[in-house]
Structure formats: C-alpha cells, structure tokens
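Note to self: the last two entries modelled the partners one at a time, which told us nothing about the interface. This time every component goes in together.
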Amino acid sequence: MAPMTTVGEQMHALVERLYPLCRSITGDGVRATLEIVGEYVPLQVHEVPTGTQVLDWTVPQEWNIRDAYIADTAGNRVVDFAASSLHVLGYSVPVAATMPLTELRGHLHTLPDHPTWVPYRTSYYTPEWGFCLAQETLDALPDGEYEVRIDSTLTDGHLTYAEHVVPGQVPDEVIVSCHVCHPSLANDNLAGIAVATFLARALAERTPWYTYRFLFAPGTIGAITWLARNAERMEQVKHGLVLACAGDPGRLTYKQSRRGDAEIDRVMRHVLLASERPHSVTEFTPYGYDERQFCSPGFDLGVGSLSRTPYAGYPEYHTSADNPDFVSPEAMADTLAVCREAFGVLDRNRRYLNLSPYGEPQLGRRGLYDSLGGRSDAKQAQLAMLWVLSLSDGEHSLLDVSERSGLPFDTVAVAAGALRGAGLIKA
Amino acid sequence: MAPMTTVGEQMHALVERLYPLCRSITGDGVRATLEIVGEYVPLQVHEVPTGTQVLDWTVPQEWNIRDAYIADTAGNRVVDFAASSLHVLGYSVPVAATMPLTELRGHLHTLPDHPTWVPYRTSYYTPEWGFCLAQETLDALPDGEYEVRIDSTLTDGHLTYAEHVVPGQVPDEVIVSCHVCHPSLANDNLAGIAVATFLARALAERTPWYTYRFLFAPGTIGAITWLARNAERMEQVKHGLVLACAGDPGRLTYKQSRRGDAEIDRVMRHVLLASERPHSVTEFTPYGYDERQFCSPGFDLGVGSLSRTPYAGYPEYHTSADNPDFVSPEAMADTLAVCREAFGVLDRNRRYLNLSPYGEPQLGRRGLYDSLGGRSDAKQAQLAMLWVLSLSDGEHSLLDVSERSGLPFDTVAVAAGALRGAGLIKA
Amino acid sequence: MAPMTTVGEQMHALVERLYPLCRSITGDGVRATLEIVGEYVPLQVHEVPTGTQVLDWTVPQEWNIRDAYIADTAGNRVVDFAASSLHVLGYSVPVAATMPLTELRGHLHTLPDHPTWVPYRTSYYTPEWGFCLAQETLDALPDGEYEVRIDSTLTDGHLTYAEHVVPGQVPDEVIVSCHVCHPSLANDNLAGIAVATFLARALAERTPWYTYRFLFAPGTIGAITWLARNAERMEQVKHGLVLACAGDPGRLTYKQSRRGDAEIDRVMRHVLLASERPHSVTEFTPYGYDERQFCSPGFDLGVGSLSRTPYAGYPEYHTSADNPDFVSPEAMADTLAVCREAFGVLDRNRRYLNLSPYGEPQLGRRGLYDSLGGRSDAKQAQLAMLWVLSLSDGEHSLLDVSERSGLPFDTVAVAAGALRGAGLIKA
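The predicted structure of the combined assembly is written out below.
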C-alpha cells in the first residue's frame, strides 16, 4: 500500500493540520496536537498536575483560551484570535474592558521593521495580558475607545506531554525530543514534530539496536518535567537529538552537545560531512531549545540538536511569517534523511576486538577473499577488513575505522559483519 | 589630592631619578635605588653576606666604585665615570697605572656599528678591569701614554634585595619581579622598576584576592638568592610575572612560563587579545630575565614575563642609547594598564560549582531577569548567567566561561557574582 | 683500502647480481639471494619446515622451478622462463601439455596498458599455473597448438629467512626488515635489500647504543614466521623500520607506525624535515609491506616504513619495467643516508635528569663557558646547554629539546654530553 505522496508531502500535510491550533506550555492546544500526532504513531500521553515540583521549577496553572479580540465601537473585530492564535499574548490573563487606544497601546505588540507580520509573544510566569498584531493594522486604527476581550482561564490543571517508544535490541536509549508548545509557527516547531513523527515510523521498520524514545513536550518546563520524572532512566540514555526548525530553506546545522565529543556529535559530524551536504556544525551554547536542559551540567547527556537555520537565525522567527509556506516538503525530507543516516551509523557503531591480533589472520583460508573477489568493490571490501582487524583493539569504533581509513561507514560495517561471521572479531 | 601629573609621567620621573646611579649585582648603587623606590612603597630590604651558599651559587664579594677615568698626559679626563656609570666595566677590579694606548686598547670596549654609543659590559665572575666608550671617542685619542684609574673595591659585604607585599584575602601569592642590577639603562630595567612600583600602589587601593609580593633584586644571583631563602614559600607561589623592558616604544610581548599552560599564561593571552592591542605571545626560552630561575625545572613556577620589545631585541639594548628618552610615559602607562587588567582577571578567576545543576534553575523567580531586564546589556548579562551555570562544574574557571562564550570576562564575573548572591553557585 | 666506487654504486652492483634470481616465498632463489648478501654481512640463516604453524598461518610447501616455457609447434620457445623469472606465475604447479592458444589464454597474464611490459603475478595459496608475458608478444602469437611446460615442484621443504645482528651497548633492539620474496624486481625489493645490507655495515663502524637486528625474510609469511618464533623477544624490540622501494627516482616517503607517535615516527619526521629534503610522511595503513605484521594490534610495535615512491605508487610496480635501470646509485645512497641520520638521532635520543634543577647551575664555574667561548658556534652551544638543563626533567628527550629550541639535534646532543661530563645531568 504505497503512499501516493512522498514522505515530504506527508510531513507537510501534518504541519498544515497542526498549524491552526493554539498551543502553549499547557492546555487543550497541546492535547489536540498530540491527538493528531497519535494518529501516526501511538503515544503515551502524560498529564502532570499544576503545582508539581519538577527540579527547580513548579508546574504552572493550565491556560486555556476560547476567544479574544479587540473591537471598535461599531463592534468590528479589528484584531481577532479566531484568525490566528498568534494574536493573543501567550498565557494572557482574562480581560473584558473598554479603553481608549492610548491606554490599549501598552498591551499591543508589533514588529515595526516588518509591518505586515504579527509577532509571537508570551508571558508565562508574570501575569499579563496583551495582543500581537501587524504594525500596519495598528497604524490604521483611529483613536478612540476599543473593546478588549480575552476569554481565557488560568486554573489548576495539568501539563501535558507524550512519549513514543521504538523498542530496540538493547534497553540503552536514544531520545529524540521536539517542543510542542508554540502556537501557529510552522518551522518552530511543527516541522520538527513532523520529522520526529516520520522518523519514529521509519525506525520501526526494522528493530533497531538501541531503544528510541521520542518526546513531544512543551519547551523548557516540559523537558524539565520529563527529566524530573525519569531520573532513574538517565543511566540508560546514551544519546539524544533535539529536533527544531527542521523545515526552512536553510542548510542543516548541527549543534553539538555540551560535551562536544559525545558519540552523537561524532556521528552527526561524520554523516553531514560524508553526505557532502552544505551544512554547519556549531559549538554547544546554553540557550536554544531543550538541549539546554538535557545538557545541563548535572545531567550532561550526549544530546545534540539538529536544525536547518538555527534558533532565532531567520527574520521569520517567532512571527506570522513562519507559516506553512515557509517550510517545504523537500527540506523536511532532507532533515529526515540525515536523521535516518545518522541513526543508521549510530546503531551500528560498535567497538570490536580482534580475536587473532598477532599478525594478520589468513583471510583467504576463510573464504573472505573468494567471497568478495568477483565484485567490483572487492578491493574496498578487502581494505575495510584489514582496517577493521587493525583497529579492533577495543578502543576504536567502526566510526573511527571509517574516519581513519577514509572508507564509507557502510563498507566498514559490512566488513565487520563478515569478520564477525568468520569468528575473527567479537563485539 | 589628585596628582597634577599622569601616572605615566610619575613613572618617568622615577626613571629619571634612578638613571644616574651606578647599580650592579651588589653594592651601594642598589641600596640607593631601593631607598628611592622605598619612598613610593614601603620595602623590606634584605642583606645577604658574601659567601652565602645560594642554590648552586655563592654570593660574591660586594663591589663599590667611587671614581674611574682615563686621563691624557695633560690630565684631561677623556673617559670619566662621573659622566656615565656605563663607562666602567661592571665589577672592574681597581687599577691605577699609566700605559700607552696600544696596551690600553685591550681593556676598551666600543660599538663600532654605533660609533656614538657607549656599550654596557660586566665581568662579574672573572677578575678584570676595563672601560666602555664611544668608538668616536676612541678614534679621536692620539697615541701616547694615558693614566688609567679605577677606584673600586671588591670586598666581603652583602648582596642587597628588597620585597614589598600587598596583603590579599588569601595567603596564596603572586610574585612580581624586576631586576635592579643594571646601571644607567632606562628600559632595562628602570622602566620595569617603575611599573612594578606603581602597580604595587594600584593593587593596594582595594584588598586583592591574592597576596602580591614584589621583588626588587639583582638579576640571576638575586633571584637565585631569593629562591634559596624562600624554599618553604614555594607552595604558596601560585602565579608570577617578571617585568623587564617595560617602557620602550615597541608593542607588548608576553613570554609564557615554561609550563605554557599556567593560569598566568592563559590570563595574559586573554587580556592582550581582548584588549585588541597589537602584541606578541612567545614560547618560554631558558634565557632572558629571571623567569629562567623561577621556571627552572626544580621550581617550574607559573611565572611569565612581560616586556615591550623583548630581551636583546632592540639596537639600543645594553648601550647608552637606552636612556630616559628611549622610554615614554605613555608606554609605561600602557604596560601598567595591561598588568592591572591581567591581575584584575587573575584575581577573580575562580571555579564555581552550580548548586542547581539538574536542568536550568528558574532565574525569573529569583529576580535575576528583572534585576537586569531594564539595562541595555541585559541580554549579555543573561547569557553570561546561563554560561556560568552551564560550565560551573568545578572544572571550568570564569576565564574558560569567558573564552567559550565569547563574552567579556567582566560580564562573566558580574554574572557569577549575581548567581552567587542568589545561592545558585558556590566557589 | 678505500673502495674505488661510491657506496651507491656498490649497492647498485648488488642489485644487479641479485636481479636474475627467481625468488619466491620459499625455495632455492631465496637461499641463493641470502648467500650473496652473506658475502657483505654475515647472516644467520633459518630454515622452517613446511607445515609449521606460525601464528594464524602454516608454512606452505616449498616451491622450486627449473624451467618453464611456451613453445610453438616448431619448438621455438615464444615465452621462456630462462629469459626472465617473471614469465612464470609464482608458485605455479607443474604442467606439461599441448593445447590450443584459445585454451592457453586462460593461463596468460599481460598488461594491455603497457604492451611491452611483463607483469608479476603469483598464486601462493590457490593451486594454479600460468605465464606472464608482454601484450605485444601475445598479440603476435598465431592461433594454433602450443606446448606448455612448467618444470616446478611443490614439496614439503622449508621457508628460509636470515638475520644479521649489529650488537649494541644495550640489548634493546631496533629491527630493520626487508622482504626477499620477489623475483626479478629491482626497486621492489632488491634496492631495499641493498640499502639494508650497507646500513648494517655502516652501523657496525662504531658500536651503536641499540642492538640492530636486520631481517631478510619473504613478505607476509616470512615476517609472520619470524614473529611467531620470536615471541619472547618482543619486549626487547623498541623500534623498527621496514625498507622497501628504496631506489626509485621518487622523493622519500615515511609511513608512520600504527601508533603514529612512536619514537621512530618522531625521529624520521624530524630527520626528514631537518634535512630539507622533499619528502612525504603518511599515516599508517594496514596494507603495504611487513609493517602490517609488526604493527598488527597484538604486537603494535613502533615500526615504520621507509620507501621512496610508496607501495604500488608507480606504473613500473610489479612489472618487468622495475629493472636495475629503474633504480639509481644516487637514490639508494640518499635512502641510506637518511637511515644513517635517523638511527644517529635515535641512538642518542635519551631523556636526561637535571641534577641541579633548582635555578640555573653556574656554568662558568665548571668551565662550560670557557671551553666554548672561543668558537664561532659558542652561542648556540651555550643556548643548547640552557635548553637541555631546562627540559631535562625526565619527561623530555633530546629530540624534544631540539624541536622546542629549534637547535639542531647534533648541537643539543653535544651540549648534553658536556653537561653529563660536568655531572649536571644523568641519563
């Protein structure tokens, strides 16, 4: 039952479905989002009550919103939440008032440099209300009285996040995390959600070596909540990747883990370089997305972050211009492809021990020349076996072998398989 | 009571006062020098008797000189010690004789390439006498008999050196050393003496973290004597800087300690680079000034050396052209400023431990956003806090944080102060 | 009794003597080769019986050949082993048959891209017979019947290799290895054999520090046999060098040991760089010559390989064009000179301990200034002493001193000798 559309188109369709929802760090927008994602991959949804202590933080009250607008005296809605979830300041407290424009201005957010774009603003931990609108909309408003109305609630409730697990051959885990707290912003982070979703489906096609755990959680407080509730799991988390800004037209950017030499760092650098894609690799910084939580010094996990144009690096960032037109099927498919390549390497990147380390073992006697001799890539395969034998001292991984030999990782992994089959190396 | 003159001018005035004195590795010239320096900062003067064993060396006899000249048969002094202390070979044994110019020539030192300059020469450990003069003076001497007279004494006495201590908050010490054994040479090392003197005054304005110990001692034998007499102090000496050639027009040169990765090396490199001054940083060499003693392999102290044009690197080196005109108030003020910046960094460069290392602590709740939010450098300050939190794992110093983040050291140190005030990190 | 010819010419004469012999991994060709080499340096010849287990391998049957040809129906030998040992596939099983050219073609090896050259081919471990010939010879053969005859024997016998030892002052060994299994190929490896032979003579001129062991053994199986029989010696083998392709017109290439930082690697890099010869230094690869056995992970010896144009890097490789004209006296003399320089450094490259490490020792008192003062290189000699004193902390070798100071190794070694003579350092 082959799909009629490409995987890129399927991811873009998911972005378009999710786009109108008003997500925040809590509330029904997140739940609706997870319900849609759950149609693609089964999710375990967690609800964590308001007031729960999570590391240094406390789960806040749940925010929900039904309607919000600014109306002129004639009753015309000049700014309307129904048109875009960006129009209301995230976590706005309720308001119902009439006030002159001069007073209202203190609650309005615009982007003077981009007069047709609506900014995205929030005030999670300071009680506040406000509207976001285009500068040109504001400029067109005549002085006078306006009715402002935000029909929101801030009540004890829950923080919602979800997990999806692709079981592997070993309990050691790779976590893939994407934030689900932003309202109508396509690249940040519906594209990341879509890539994570389809990556999970791809990994499940064949039982991977590692167990892959996908996290769909609000930024910062969501990651902190997950970390707080999974302290006992940390030993098992061997690698991880945060997906964000996964669909814009920019080239791929891999941001290294705090450690800088974690295996995921080496794998991502290798795959990006070997693929000959234009790309950037950047040092860790303690800001950006949830890598800042996973890489906080107490955890210091081997978690990097893959984006196209990185965090806050494009003019459309946190504006209404980050809409589904800003992300493309091709870009998301490219991000997905790199993730699959990288996890393909990570999953096979083991250290072997040469069981015949004194001199070269006689490969011919074991049919390891014959079995390859007739193929056009025979010479590479044979060199790969010599390299694996030479470096299988328990210290070098297959990725080390690939990089020192200049041979493709796949060639090296196949050679290791042949040598293991002949009993010449063991994991 | 603000001084009417700049600090550079004050240092230059000190150079001019010290210039005429006939210093050597022992004797009254050193004592007179220390007496003048003692007018600026209180000195503890040490007198070490001739014959004292100091490491592999022995304190030599004390040399003093009252008069020296070459006179023609008419009694005219054609070379006169009274005109410049450079005219007599340092440590000359006494002589009173009449001899033809042909015989005298074997005792005369000139600089044929710089016919108007008088060279500086010594013979500390081989008994010898001699005169230094301009080549053009020598060329003008008619053949004939000359009276030569050196009224010097070499007798059991003392080697003299001095210390000045700026007490700090901890007993760990930083030593600042300058040689005081050269006669009328301005850059080598009256400028170094002047910078050290005014640096000591500046450090005392506010109790520093470290205890700063200033050494005013003759080169080689003086440093060796101090090391021999302070063996028990070595544990406390954490950092050090040798000041020499501190006033010439060249750009600053920092010569690293033998270790190359001592904290003083990192601090000096950082400050010179961050200040955007033209400068050089050079590897350690086992010749130059007293860093060669402090960095000998048995001690291997973290002691670097700051000069402008380095040791022997300028034509005026060890000649009468190294006079007070060769050093400028501006150059000495610049050297002083870099020392103050460097010790400002060194003094605050501590390793902290993040007390809330699991995930990011909630800064907003502690007012660490509010307190900074209104300032124009708010974003940098906030980034600096995130960087300090991220790297405060007991391994990284604030200088590491500054270099990894690209943020100015001051910004990082202020952020660390705020976090420490909030109880989020500890030293 | 000075030789009338240069050492390069003597080496070339040896190459020409050895060239006609039909060597293989076993057999009388190897024995004849060792007999000739034994005229230059005494050899201990080892004979290891067929069937002996050596590491993962088994010593094969011994191959000998008396005659081989392809003759046309008129009895004319169109391909004749007597003309060149390359004409027969190495280890060919015996054959005596008449067959049409169409059938014979399956046993013929040519080089279509070099129609006048005869290739070199072997089939050591798969029973096979064949002839190697020029493509133009093949092209000229009319269709029809041909008599093929290979008068060879494959019987239980021995594998033959030889050792020559230059005794040193210590039992620690340097091994110099060259393969002796190739038939009429001059650069690969008669030039290596010649350089090794004359290197052994040169080293014996003066008792070296290390004991130098020269191995003349067939490639792969010979090195493996030696390793298998010398397991107890491995502790003593401190350094080694494989010599191959030592006479072609290309520039020198040093291939590093698997470790990459073995002392032989540092010495060879230093000598090649300091000599200002054009040269290459390459990383270890697990193919090439017998370094692959010495550097297999179980042994991991500090053994590098010196060639001119490296393994398989020239068109004449493994063809009749690799004849005595392809190697020159000058190239072999140059390779020999670099070996002598390198072993000259290796032999003196020790770590010393400064016995007067606190401050500088007073060199003048010990006559270490006087003794050098009058020479034009006095300043360098004095700097070298200061450098040796500074770095003689048990961690730095004289090569480290040379590289950090920028002073020639010889200057440093002479300075170390003077300091040792004065009791200031010890090994």
